[in-house]
Design goal:
This protein has helices at about 25-40, 55-70, 85-90; strands at about 1-5, 10-20, 45-50, 75-80. The protein is globular and about 30 Å long. The protein has 3 helices and 4 strands; from the N terminus they run ββαβαβα. The chain has one domain: STAS domain (Transcription Regulator spoIIAA, 2-Layer Sandwich). The protein has a 4-stranded mixed sheet, with helices on one face. The protein is an alpha/beta fold. This is STAS domain-containing protein.
Length: about 110
Amino acid sequence: MELQITPVDNTSLSLCVIGDFDAQTIKEAQVCIDKLLTDDSHEHITIDLEHVDFLDTSGIGTIVYFYKRLYERNRSLSICNAHGQPLKMMELLRIGQAIPLNAVATQV
């Protein structure tokens, strides 16, 4: 898995996940997420799942952890470009009730 962080503007950034988002890759993601949590310069973060074909409950847990920590800091999170198995998993778990799912991606 690879993570690409791209600032969109002064208040938001995009976190693009490339590859499977599962139990084997969440440690790498957790380091990145913890770093983003301590950087309060971006009010909104969009997780781009366009290049993710597999998402397991560990990946879901990491996204929910990120959402909760951002919410505690009056920041927000959305998910864009989810498709296939990751989208079905998030719909089944009703992730979209808390986190905007397949929000329109901000142009970079």
